[in-house]
Fold:
Amino acid sequence: MEADPVAPMFDEPETLRERIARNLGVVVRIKEPLSTHAAFRRQVQDDARQAAQSRWHTPIFDKPLEKRRLRILQGLFYGLSRLDCTITVQGRETGPISIGVGHQHVWIALERAAQRRRSSDDKEVERLKFSILKGYGSTTERVAWVDTLGGKR
Structure:
C-alpha cells in the first residue's frame, strides 16, 4: 500500500504572493470601459460595422448578458495584461480564449449557462458560466463556476 503524496513546501510563499500583488496592483471594476481591450477589439468593431450595414444583423454585444460578459472579460484581460500574459480571442462571438502564461496556455470560456429552472415570475434567468477548459478546441471542462440565482448583476 502506497502512502499519500506529501504536499510540496516552498521557502517563501508570502514573498512570491506579495510580489505578484505588487505587480498586479489594484484591478477595479469598470462599469462602462472607455476602450475595448485589444484582444477582442476586432470582434466588437466588426459586429458594430455589420449592424450599421444591414438591418437584418442583430448586434451580438448589445444584449445585456453579452455586455456583462464583455465587462467581465475586459476586467480579466486588463488585469492579466499587467502580468505580461498574452490573450488571444478567436471567432466572431469571442469563442475560444487562450491566456498565455509564460510558455503555457490556459483555455477558458465565459458563456451563457444552461437554463435549468425559472424564477418565481416565470421569466428565464440568464446566468454566465466561467470554465477552464482542458485544451484547444476542447469543450471538456477542468473546472467551472456558474452565477448564483440571487447574485448581484
About this structure: The radius of gyration is 19 Å. The chain is about 30% helix and 20% strand. The chain has a mean pLDDT of 76.
